[in-house]
Amino acid sequence: MSAKQNYEGPPPWRSIGRHEMLPEASHDDAARFDFLAQLNHHLGSKVLPGIQRVYEREVEPEQRRRTGAGFRNRHEVRRSLGRHPGYRSWSALRRATMEMRQQAGRMLVLRQWGALNQKAQRLNEAGLGESLLLDPAIETPRYLAAVDHHCMPGSYHAELAPGDVAAAANYDAGIFVTTGGLLGRYSDGGGRGVVDWVREHLPDFRPQRILDIGCGLGHNVLPLARAFPEAEIWAVDQAAPLLRYGHARARALGVRNVRFAQGNAESLASLGFEDGRFDWVQSTMVLHETSHRAMPRMMREIHRLLAPGGITLHIEQPQYHEKMDLCEQCLRDWDAFNNNEPYWTRFHEVDLDAVLVEAGFASGALLHGGVFAPAEDAEAAAAREDGAPRSEDFGRSPAWRLVGARKAAA
Amino acid sequence: MSDPADPAAALADYLRLAGARSKGRRPWFFENRDAERVLGIAMALAQELSVTRDRLDTLERLLEQAGLLRRADIESYAPDAAAAAERGRRTQEYLAVLLRVVQQELEESEAGPEERSSEEVARELGGAEAESQ
Lengths: 410, 133
Known about the structure:
heterodimer, A: 410 residues, Rossmann fold, eight-stranded mixed beta sheet, globular, B: 133 residues, mainly alpha, 0% strand, flat
């Protein structure tokens, strides 16, 4: 048996999909990403199961002994489990890993900052005002300004100078570390999964106009653009560095039917979108980074933007529900408190069906399903089938719940 | 501020910017924050050791590809007496450097009761005025 057959773990960073915008990495830059991906893999597959055992054998029985009853909710679990030295070590290591990943990515990006910005400028030149629409009047909403998401210094929106793409370049190069390559070589597993789901469940759906909200740097919208090459596709985000980089990246990858536009999905009137403009409005791992006030407003705006018979789909990690173990809920909540994902916790207890109905969709027209990142090739598929069941690094696995709705036909 | 469109531009203070904190007060997990700080440094060292080992591995493989060495020779390498002594001394020096702080803490217990700290001696030599300043 070869060493390769025995190996279960992240692929090398060097195997990620290259394109002209991807920052150049030295041997040691790549080695840092490889180390950090392995460290995350270790924390998820070797340390995390130990935390669950601690909960089952010590923390939960102790709670029963002390109070005569079990924990009532995930917050009580967090307060008790949070005192255990094992949980603290896991947390301190996980937080340190996030910070080290940011430093490694930013170091490699800022070293070649001028060259990256120039590449983006060159690739974007022809599209400015056409397929790249920036709007300096868009203000960063409180839910993205209050803390820097996933410990990214400056978050998605900060610019070190006008024309800066550093935040996006860092995200693109380093997302591999937290996903361990499970989203695929182009980190687009979410988008490819959505396309597969639509083809399987809505085989007659022929969208003419598609809107992707919270597109980030476009990882998940490009699979939609490839699947529906005739469609007019808009990718909207509120952060200019992501759009600049995303537009340039799409060009570098030969995708030309996506317009990247700056806007706030709570109201896209600033982009001149009339009622009923779109056949499909998509969000992929976006809602949890909004807020309890903004998210229902987005749903109402989506309802307005959809044509009669149009659909909206949203991909997220599973919502918490009564049957989900409280320890699992607590561990899934970790990023909310310790990795600057502040809406993650409340979001995952929201009844999304009710939010959609409140936004105007009929309760009989809701859509539900499961989406996973498809294997990219036969080799990857075989590796997945051969391997033992993958341990789950809660909140970060490449499998999601889909919730959505179809707008009533006129 | 560097020109963002100049291909040669690297931000002058890119090291500070690369390691900048993210907004949002940081949770500390250990009861003793000093211990968590040391853990952070230890993990960074662990990362850099891993980077160095990868580099060494790359080097060995490239040398083997070029026919300049066989990696099996590395695995079975046995130093002769002279090389072993040289290597042994280097390991001893390394350990002495690594564990200096332990050595010095133990030496402190051997100091006589009359030994003073520099701060105490500063008061002694400077008189009462120095102390009140």
